[in-house]
Amino acid sequence: MTVQEPSSTSTHVIRKKITGHVGFSNLPNQVRRKSVKEGFRLTVMVVGESGLGKSTLINTLFNSTVCAPREPLHPAAERPKTVAVENIEADIEENGVRLRLNVVDTPGFGDFVDNGESCNPILETIEQRFDAYLSQEHRVRRAKIVDTRVHACIYFIQPTGHSLKQIDIEFMRRLHNKVNLIPVIAKADTMTDEEIFDFKERILSDLAFNGICIFQAAIYEDEDEESVAEAEEVARAIPFAVVGSDRAARTPDGRVVRGRTYPWGVVEVDNPAHCDFGKLRQMLVRTNLEDLREHTNQVLYENWRTEKLLAMGIAQDLTVFEEISPAERLREERIIHQAKLAKMEAAMKDVFREKVELQEEKLKQSEVELYARHKEMKDALSKQWTQLMEKKKQLESGSPDARKKTFRS
Ligand code: GTP
Predict the structure, then answer these.
(1) Would the ipTM clear 0.90, i.e. be above it?
(2) What residues does the Septin-type G domain cover (predicted)?
């Protein structure tokens, strides 16, 4: 039996109550089966000053040694001049579900006297990955697009207890519309609960004051009460105060946990009463992984793509829901191709100009040398000429004895 509700708009929405079994309620299972087969791909970037526990936290999050600890630089070794960008790939499997994890580490961030330039290599990496995705979208065969875009950036804030530093604000301000920012208070075991509470308030007000948007964990009201309450608790805990440890510790009551041992007891990484590590993991991999990927694709990438194409002179009148016509796509491809050619041509012209300038410089140099040699020879000749004239005069005016003397000399 079906009941059809008339729609007031020109597009007719047909709502039907179906009594018999059709079978599309099985769709979520189909999606799940397909996703499980293909596995998931997640790219997480970690940014923060050296020694704030980035590698440890990633290893704790994925319960395996994804990032090996970095050897400290020898005091005599030359210091890098810019932030490096390192890519670490790991395949993790849990209950038959595969996760291809990509960690983008950024050693050197905040290590320089002038940290103004620290953001540039990171921003470039994010945009290069957008670019790579855009190129794949414009390929003739698009069946296997590999998504290497950064889905989340965990930004480590030093546990100072004061407010955000200039470098924190600068970084987040420049990146918040390119990547899902997840700020965390590093090494939260070095602060008391009250200090963490106050610090979180100050960070949130600094973020709001500077117009910085961070990733908000979505709350799905249609889920069961417990899940909604859990999601609300996670959202309230941002910025997460985290503790990392990839070592086992024994608690006074004899339990073996992941934690950090102190003379007064053990800080348990997975204990929600001790830190927000569990909430970060919950958001990142358990409940919001798909939201992170979706927001990257539909908002951050889409905005970047629109801006990029508009800058290239392609008017984007279509809404995201409209299908782009093949002719329009071809036009976009042609413009992108022409822009690439123009870029290559400009680069080649630059190289050519540099070579011509070098050659001109060499020619100028030889001209100067030639002129100097010419002058030297001319001077020598005129000196010789003067001497000869002297002798001639002596010969013409002198006695025979003097002439003989002149000849001899
Ligand atoms: P770089 O690779 O130099 O950028 O350092 P990093 O940020 O990756 O830090 P790493 O994970 O190597 O940790 C640096 C030191 O801090 C190590 O001695 C860790 O054991 C320690 N550490 C890591 N996490 C925590 C934490 O949550 N609390 C405390 N107290 N120490 C931590």
Answers:
(1) yes
(2) 38-311
